[in-house]
What does this fold into?
Amino acid sequence: MQTQSIPASEAFSWIRTGFERVRREPARWLGMTLIYLVVALLLRPIPSLLYNLVLAFLTPIMLASALIAARSAPVPTPADWRGWLRALIVDALRDLFQVFRREDHTFAIMIVCIVTLGLVAVVNIPALLISGGSMISGLAGAGLAAPLRLETAVGMAVVALLYLLLLMALLYIVPLTVFGNRQAIPSLTESFLTCVRHRAPLALFIAPFLGVNLLIMVAFGLSHWLGYLLLVGLGVVALPAFVIGLYSSYQTLFETPAVSAASPINPNATP
It folds into this structure.
């Protein structure tokens, strides 16, 4: 793990890597993203709390597979519409569940799914009681046009803090278990401490994607058609760019050898 501080500007490199990879492999990443979104939309009719739990269980599987795709060599863009159709459906389905190709990956990711499910349940139950399930629904319940009451503001702050702690604990649990051969529970601590240690670049990295997510949530609150329009127009590009950028940040923070600036290695030194 990278113990030295890295500049906050490194976040822009991660973001640029994500969007550049999506630009070079549009069929591969759009296909995986669309399948994930279709699965999420098909689950939407079930009750809100159950929906969040089911999606929390399934997401690590698809995230692990997408990270494996990010770790692999780029694939060429299809030459014709048949190639695009195959890439968007057949190849995307294969890529999105490729974590099951290896037995060690399968076992590790199922443990991660169970741990993630438990943590999301712990956070979602009080969030549901405080704000109705999300920041947006909490504001809607309070009335957007009415002055924000103190108890509502405190409740929203508590919910935001819970989700922040959850994000910090889960951010790197999947790549740490799949690529770093860590156990799921210790990965939670390592992920959280990494987020604390490198909070500036990680905050800059996550902020634009969080902004896109909040924008889409607000759009769905105003109009379903507007929400779907932004989801297709922004979400299908931002989501894979975030995943690839996350992998790039994992490489920087966990796989780049740390060299002490105070004690540089001198190859000409004699013992």
Observations:
- The CA atoms of residues 53 and 116 lie 9 Å apart.
- Residues 135-146, 258-271 have pLDDT under 50 and may be disordered.
- The two ends are 28 Å apart (CA to CA).
- The longest helix spans residues 224-255.
